[in-house]
Amino acid sequence: MWCMIVLMGCQGHARAASRGHSKWLDLPIEQLIEIADRDFNDGNKKDTALMCYTIVANRYDSSMSVKHKEMCKNASMRMWSIYFYDYYDYPKCFDCLARALEIASDAGIEDANIYLGFGCMYQTISEECSNTELGIKALNYYQQALEVGLKTHDDQHSDMASTDVLAMSHNLGRMSQAEGIWQQYLELPEDNATWILRRYNKMLYQAFHSIEQGQLDDAISTFDRQLQLIDTTQYSRLIYFTLIEKGKVQARRGDYRSAIADVHHAEKIAVELEMKYCKLEAYGLLARYYQQLGDHSAREHYYNNYTLLKDTLTNYQQLASVSEMEFRNELRGMEQEMAEVKQHRELMSIVTLVSLGFLLVLLVLLYLVYRKNGELTRSNQLLYQKNVEMLRAEEEERRMRRQLQDKEPIPTPVTAAPEADVKYKGSHLSDEDKNQLLSRIQEVMDNNPEIYTPDFSLERLATLLGSRYKYVSQVINEYYNQNFNNFLNSYRIKEACKRMGDLEHYGNYTIEAISESVGFKSRSTFVTSFKRITGLTPSQYQRLARKEAE
Which pTM value belongs to this model? Predict the structure, then answer.
């Protein structure tokens, strides 16, 4: 019955997933962990993993074995990881970490990884908000992680925590705060060939200590020895971090050319590993250092890269937030189902008294679900028809624009005014300039197949138009009330719809192939954009298109 109740409150993917809750609820903890770990490592199945981990964590009971308590604790930590890296839901992150700490305390388990999680969360929030107090709280948690790691001989998490303690202490100007625990760490052996991170951390301590003493040349020399130690792809992230810190020291002593060289190397690593926030940091430093050298052209280039990437990350976080809201409704239904199933099991003694009523309610709910499924099917068909009609209308509008362009050539845009420091403030674009630029934008977007290539960008569009990218961005924002990425994605999604309807040429294409053919690099971005624009998932749209052609 509870499964049917959840089904009534969800739609689409949530309905399909909820049908699997009942079988998951009855699985043993070991099997749930096996399923969750498998899907956790599959980047496209994090939602399923989160459901299974949630079931395990909610099964926690103080009377269960230590082995099962540890599984519940580990499940809470994996939930934290998903909420932190995929949904940016810090309140949920805190709940998961607090739950893991509660379970660990009850089981008599000391886990440095829990404190690392708290530190990572508070560090991220402090950097986003520029809040020093939260940074200090992050440092305190990292210190706890190091203390617990040393106490329990957890080499892996001790070494990880030590890196974080050093970095945060240095950034906050609190190296003395970590001195006591660091003396214990410095005494640890480092003869094992696998303890590269330990040797790296001890060098990092020396480098930061040299910086505090004003011995910048010694610090740079130590950074160079670190880079020789970790010069493998296995430690690419550490190489990035070391190059950035070395570049900061080079800049501090006024050698901006060397600083730029180090940060360029770090930027290359960030690009190769798709570390978006690291690229953002590198672009910001490069813009600052080139400005110090008086190279305004290079400064402008990297400042523009910084601005564009920041906008992209903001959009990504917003999409992730929307995705989470949709999934949270599903997860809330599952959690409610779990609570009701637990209550049901506790009241098994009176099941015989209500069995007839239960059966009746179940039949009613089944009927309601059947009817709701029919309504959903009809709703999807209406959405599909609405999108098809919209595409036809837009195609007719494009045809008319082409006819007008053939009769009356579009005038060349006037020269744009210099960029202002504040977005669009002081722009010298007149209404006539904007209309001319808008017509040229529409002409390119309607006729140039290059917009369906993965690397098409705002800068490329501006180049094709012979205009500045800021003016192009301004016109798109003011006329379409959206940024360039959403504007471009709307064209690509509409083209994807056309191709799904063209069974003669694209009938054998998969969703991934359609996505790639219109310029999307990520399936998840394609699916999210498609759902936002059409109201349907790509699979639903393709299925309805094929059904329409029968």
Answer: 0.54
